[in-house]
Amino acid sequence: QVTQFDKVDITDLDEHRKTLNNENSPIKTTFLPFLIIAVTHALREFPDFNSSLSTDKETLIHKKYYHIGVAVDTPGGLVVPIIKDTNKKDMSALSMELEDLSNRAREKKLKPEELKGGTFTISSLGGIGGTYFSPIVNPPQVAILGVSRAKWEPVFSKTKKTFMPRYVLPFSLTYNHKVVDGALAASFTQHLGKVLSKTASFK
Fold first, then answer.
1. In angstroms, what is the C-alpha Rg of the chain?
2. Number of domains the chain contains
């Protein structure tokens, strides 16, 4: 396994998230639904990441569906419920399903089928802290995204010719190097960053 590190400016996206939460929505929108949408977009562009290895590890099986696992920290340890068909769900639906699955994961009330069938996993430490980390791929999946806590950083603005405070999200992509090479992984992270940096991607 190999881990690639990157970061993305999510200042505008975080403002958009706050706006959504101010619109009297019954469900508080966290950053995870945005990540799920962005990851799904990237998986459609780079299908090798939405695949699995056969039992003999000789054949790459591309999936025609997008089932994203989201790691949830519970008193009993890490649990990864699966949000299925993420390409067919909007922000509101993802937010509600995430809250439901997370709550039931902590209460140990998830059904066995809600923990199976994932094609890609997101592990977020944003609520805990830290910078970069190397998440471990969950076989037979071939990749996993690790997300740490966003923080304010001085970023040089070419237009204003000065440093500006920007809200920056560090993330890590771990992948099976037998399936994915570094160039493809870099293209995946660049695409993911572009989607996350534009609020238009989520409207």
1. 17
2. 1
